[in-house]
Amino acid sequence: MKFNLDNEYEMPEAACPACGAVFDRASGSGSKPEPGSLSICIRCAAMLQFTSTLELAELTAAEFLELPDDVQRELRRISAAVVTTGAMVQSRQPKPERPALSMWTIYDHPSDLPEYFVARQWLTAPDAPVATSLVIKSITLERLREILSAQGLVCMPRAPNDDPGIVETWL
Ligand SMILES: [Zn+2]
């Protein structure tokens, strides 16, 4: 079984049983989903199976383990990709909630940690990013950049209207 994302199919509306997101489209698999076809929720990455009435049911662990090894691997791979990119199934909801995106903002000697360069983790949220309690501090800016870069993150230069204490942000 191959999951390519070239094909997109209009489907009867179906809700993800795991997160409640409502979808009216499915992408991938080379042919239009039919009862028994496997899918992945774009919003929560749950592994799903179309029922006889083309509703979505969550694949149980036992059902998953009965699948051929290559299908298990492919489902795991796509589920992981959905978590990081979200690109499997499109929703017609006006404002689909997306998984929160993590970003790290580096500050130059902030007032609460005046001896350090500090990277703070923020998560995207519908209105404005929310700061988490995760903080990495270092005497040198280079060390913070090494740590963030080693996580596979990419540096975004500061915007002109960013707070003057902000050095840059990593996504
Ligand atoms: Zn879901």
Description:
The protein is α+β, with helices and mostly antiparallel strands and 171 residues long. It folds into two domains: 8-84, Rubrerythrin, domain 2, CATH 2.20.28; 102-170, no CATH class. It has three helices and ten strands. The protein has helices spanning 61-66, 69-84, 141-150, and strands at 8-15, 22-27, 38-40, 47-50, 56-58, 102-108, 117-123, 130-138, 155-157, 166-170. The strands form three sheets. Strands 8-7-6-10-9 form a five-stranded antiparallel β-sheet, with helices on one face. The longest helix has 16 residues, at 69-84. The radius of gyration is 21 Å and the shape is elongated. It starts with 7 loop residues before the first strand and ends with a strand. Residues 86-95 have low confidence and may be disordered. Bound molecules: zinc ion (ZN).
Q: Which properties best describe this structure?
A:
single chain; 171 residues; alpha+beta; Rubrerythrin, domain 2; 2 domains; five-stranded antiparallel beta sheet; three-stranded antiparallel beta sheet; 3 helices; elongated; binds zinc ion
